[in-house]
Amino acid sequence: MRDPQRSNRLTGETSPYLLQHAHNPVDWYPWGPEALEEARRSDRPILLSVGYSACHWCHVMAHESFEDEATAEVMNRLFVNIKVDREERPDLDRIYQTVHQMLSRRGGGWPLTVCLNPHDLVPFFTGTYFPKEPRYNMPAFVSVLHQLAAFYAEHRGDLAQNGQVLREALEALGREGNGAMLPDVELLARAKHALRTNFDAVHGGFGGAPKFPHTAELEFLMHSDGEGFEMLRTTLDGMARGGIYDHLGGGFARYSVDERWEIPHFEKMLYDNGPLLELYARMAAHTGDPAYAAVAIETAEWAIREMQSPEGGYYAALDADSEGEEGRFYVWDRLQAQALLTEDEYAVFSRRYGLDEPPNFEGHWHLHVARSLEAVAAEAGKTGGEVAGLLGSARACLRRARELRVRPGRDDKVIASWNGLMIRGMTVAGRLLGRDDFKDSADRAFEFVRRTMDADGRLMSVYKDGRARFDAYLDDHAFLLDAALELLQTRWNSDDLAWAVELADRLLERFEDAEYGGFFFTSSDHEALIQRPKPWMDESMPSGNGVAIRALIRLAGLTGDLRYADAAERGLRAARGAMAQHPNAHGALMNAARDWLNPPPLCILRGEGEALEQWCAKARAAAPESLVYAIPSDAAGLPPELAARVPGARGPLAYVCRGRVCAPPAESLDSLNEILSAR
Length: 679
Known about the structure:
By secondary structure, the protein is an alpha+beta fold. The chain has 25 helices and 20 strands.
């Protein structure tokens, strides 16, 4: 068990996940020179354990094995044990997850358990969760440990040669194509067809259980034709009805364990909720359906209330567990809910959210939409307005009661890339739903990251307890650049544009693959590891390459600096082979390719005050997909090409371009509307 009087080398860390293990009997090291040197000196293999604070099965393995004295004795005697927070070191997680997939021929996950040759850091074994005793058709963890130590002792001479083969295979990844061709419209059509083939027409989403949101693919469908848009609608409707959505507090869990979106793994991650917030806000604006707006508003309010620090940055995650049980904070007993609500409230609430059905989670009820409002009203003999009012008061009552429970743990580190995703989502929601508080929240987070996590020309990836640590990765730069361009459409700030340009320049200088095109996950001066990944595919988050390429296309249009467009083109050429091989797994890159092939209108407005606001509203109404930047006449520090787009002598001027074709400046609202309405 955890002994607060005993500590290991994790006590000096800031990661909540590492600190959860700081009092284990296991002699954990953080990843670093001390651990690696000790492994080489003692010639003991490295047992690398990768997880994160909100991971349910990470907690299970910790309680079963890492807090167990006998298991720890075996680990300490036979291995040098390194614990890694995958959110602090996504580079290590990405590399060793890739190796796990290559060796096991199946997907990875967390906790990730890897055994490394201490002399070259190449794995000779990978796995995920192992139980303390044999079960689930898996061997006991201690048995695995003894076998691994014996294997290393008997085969250490062969490992160097085997490791070289594996390193060569890793090095080949990301260089599948010859870069001769750009993605074309036929490839976009293939992506939609592949998504349709894997689409769940009943519940929405792709594939069966477990089911993940796949936000980059959903964004791709947002800009698709009628069939693609209906796939998006079905998915967003299914998620909003399901228990993956928190019907009392707002926000989405990471994934559903069933195909119906009904029962989630209960952890809430910032990186899912930012893109989902944007999707529901855009769907609300596109359809006018208040149900989508309600989900967006509740999700944004949850993020501000529970996930935004007083300093401004957004926290990383909420745990799945509380009081040692998964989902305990969220699930209900029927009698408990009945005692809290009035008779009328319970009559409609129980029908709406499934409390009148059998329990659906380990003898308890997890809320999901079981009946439509119309069906509830008919069964209860009430009007739709009466039902809506009773449901609203019942939800408020149960949420207040839930707040008295022991809350799930919160991982309160601030991750630059995840903040970029939420800043973008919050900005879009604020603009489309008319919520200044959402826009203010995004502003505060963006300013926090820029002020505290970027110094001396170097962005840091993680902030916790007053310390910004770990050189930033591709995703950190790409997602923040993307967020900056979205913020600039909501309110102009020349300093924010200057920082966006800095981020883009660093991408080109430190991350671009100068030989093949595209962007590496780590910078050119990053710690040397067994691979320098160049990820194309979307994973739990959109591909950093896809987001970077689209942001560079848009930055080139805004600033007139074609270096960014050239880098984007090189990236698309390099990615085409991977995109063609698995079209439905590259949503972010498909979104970037669509921007390249069919650029949205770019509308730069120069003017003052209310007139500028009026022109901005007109531009967005005429072409909702357009990128609109309203730049005050007195804005300073603009790049030369942008500064040349001067205000009019008697009022605003609009400069509209589609790709590299620009219309004459529009001097009236009528001419602006005519230009933007043309297809």
